[in-house]
Amino acid sequence: MERISTADREPNPAPMPPLTDSMAYSSSDEMMFGTALNPVETKDGLTIGGGQVLPEIVPHPRPGSEQTLKTLLREFERANQDALERCVTIGIPAIVIENEHVSQMTRHADWGMEITAQTQQQIESYKAKYGLQAALRATIADIRKPGMVDMRESDRTQEILDAFKACARHADILSIESLGGKEISDYSIIRNDLTGMLFAQAVLGARDMAWLWSHIVSIANENGCIPGGDTDCAQANTAMFMAGGFISRDVSHTLATFCRAVSASRSLVAYEMGATGPAKDCAYENPIIKAITGIPISTIGKTAACANMDLCGNLMAAVCDLWSNEAVEYHPMFGGSSVEVFTEILGYDVAAMNSAIQLGFQKEYQACLINSDRYRSPQSFILCPDNAWAIGKAIVTNNASCYTRARAAALTCGELMLADSNLHFTNFEKDVLLEYMRELEALPDEEDDFIDRCLKRYGKVKGFKPASYGL
Amino acid sequence: MKYVTDTSTIFTRYDLHIEVSRQSARRVSDDQLLQQVADCLVAGDEDRIQQIVAKVLTNKAPLEVINKGLLAGMQEVSRLWETGDCFLPQLILSSDAMLAGITLCEAELGQTMQKKAKVITHTAEGDIHDIGQIIVNALLSAAGFEVINLGADVLVDEVVDACRIHKPVLLTGTALMTTTMTAFPKIAEKLKKQGLIIPFACGGGAVNEEFVTSFDLGIWGKEASQAPGIAQDALNELSWEEMRNKWNG
């Protein structure tokens, strides 16, 4: 691969936003579940982050139901009806429903639109009949596989934008799990390569998000709906899931933890481009995002065990505004359908949190959530509000570029882990942690120098097209 | 905030309890030059191994470098993986280094090395989550198989056509989503209709044993790391039923 120098590169057409230079919260002590400094209100008057935690239920269709629009409509109708019905049955005051697209719903914008319209009608029907307050988040599938298509100029990109436009007519909130940089992060994760992850997340991911979110925010504004947020599911969650639990040997927990700190620099771009939250549920980086922006966030933990395992099942509720289950496939269970069951679990979880708020015990309740997981793993440790805030502070203080702030986030993350003697590491994890710190310290200070280095180093990775990112 | 100091009733860090002193790689050759090749391979240093192999090729025959340096080193890494003494990235990096070294040897040899057999890999139609397949590709290559990588989001008919053309000993399919794994039985059905009785190992994300064993040819792969073993069984001409009995149930 011939080296492409900064001087030779085409000007970057991505509309990179001004990077955040201050913290919304002056300390982590101010951060609490149920309340965000900048709450949002849906078309129908439901406030998120305004003093109470709301459940967010995410049904997922069964295999086979994706074959036709008719079967998919029926599957979502059944699942969302179950969620709303269980709310009324056990007295859940309000709920957010997320329809996360399977690829067919995005590839056929009319499918996505009809399902969104159907769900909104169900919500309206339950409001009219019972007074249940609810809102609908539509999450469009990112069907752009980097390497297979151009991230900006391809039929698939157009299909995504068409799906956003179609769904924005009926949804309250728009979101996506964008994939920019995934071709490099997939390569890097399995090679223990933190530099590659930084490049994938902070440079490529951030540039892709700036481009994509400029469109999403416009579409949302044109349709009077809320541009919710993004998540680094494709990269930081992949690292976290591969790190697994206490007996996995695929990826180190410390690498996954660094990736999480870096992901905050990337996901922040959505909000810098005009997204307002509620942030997307599976973004485990959301406590850092909330510390910086003050937007309401959705989070997942133990209630998402149906979709993925994590080591921060209680902790992730500590500063949430929506409490979600990530995705549960529709199936019958003893207690009703899986969607009914998880709606009930979420409903009681938020009822306990809201009781704590009403009683003035929220700090005590939050302390219980945090202590459950603070020292369970490196990732849970850095997502505690105090550490999340410190990483956020490193991000806004080093805001010359998405790279500089991501590197600062990673360095702070490492320093925090090394400084607390109650956080224990295996010998292997300690060794790699120290190696990562040396690697981070040796990286260039300037983003252009870093990009030059990475274009040379990763230019050979299959499917990587710098032009897809305006590089 | 108050933090609990005794967390023993809250969680148990089993990882701290089960970690044993890690083994180092063993010597694989009495020859100093070949041992250097193996050491570099174990370290997974792709850049350096090219320098070392180039140097060693001035004294040794290419096949000797491959068999007694590169493959012997890779076997040692595989052993460490089996015993739990190395993590997946070390295996992948060593595989990268091995392939880089073999490429140099092949250039010197003037021909490509005979591979064990062909394996076709793909990620299901509609699914772009292919990191599991990427791992499978690396592990199969490291084990000496020729990987025909069809990539992600591959149409059912494209998979079947590739099987007809290449006649692999094994087909693998990866899917993250339950709504995309439904492509697998369609592929199996079409393969059978064309008389292509090829074991079809499926895994990833939400793919489960019950689903994969519900259609003929299907063998559920719980972990990507099982791929070389499953491919070896296919090469040893076990039927798909025998393979299913061995790996599933």
How would you describe this structure to a colleague?
By secondary structure, chain A is of the alpha/beta class. Chain A has a single domain (35-469), classed as TIM Barrel (Alpha-Beta Barrel), CATH 3.20.20.70. Helix content of chain A is 50%, strand content 11%. Residues 1-12 of chain A have low confidence and may be disordered. With 249 residues, chain B is α/β, with parallel strands linked by helices. Chain B folds into 2 domains: 22-109, Methyltransferase, Methionine Synthase (B12-binding Domains), Chain A, domain 1 (Orthogonal Bundle); 118-247, 3-Layer(aba) Sandwich (Rossmann fold), CATH 3.40.50. Helices cover 51% and strands 9% of the residues of chain B. Chain B has 11 helices and 5 strands; from the N terminus they run αααααβαβαβαβαβαα. A 5-stranded parallel β-sheet of chain B has the order 2-1-3-4-5, sandwiched between helices. Chain B starts with 13 loop residues before the first helix and ends with a helix. The mean pLDDT of chain B is 92. The chains are: A alpha/beta (471), B alpha/beta (249). The interface between A and B is large, with 46 and 44 residues.
Layout of helices and strands, plus pairs?
The complex is a heterodimer of chains A (471) and B (249).
Chain A: E1 35-41, E2 47-50, E3 54-57, E4 59-60, H1 69-90, E5 94-100, H2 103-107, H3 109-130, E6 133-140, H4 155-168, E7 173-176, H5 182-189, H6 194-223, E8 226-229, H7 233-243, H8 253-272, H9 286-293, E9 298-300, E10 322-324, E11 328-329, E12 332-333, E13 336-337, H10 338-359, H11 362-373, H12 378-382, H13 385-397, H14 402-419, H15 427-441, H16 447-458
Parallel strand pairs in A: 3-5, 3-10, 4-11, 5-6, 6-7, 7-8, 9-10
Antiparallel strand pairs in A: 1-2, 12-13
Chain B: H1 14-18, H2 32-43, H3 46-56, H4 62-82, H5 88-109, E1 118-123, H6 131-142, E2 146-149, H7 156-166, E3 170-174, H8 183-193, E4 200-203, H9 209-212, E5 218-221, H10 227-235, H11 240-247
Parallel strand pairs in B: 1-2, 1-3, 3-4, 4-5
Helix pairs in contact in B: 2-3, 2-4, 2-5, 3-5, 4-5, 5-6, 7-8
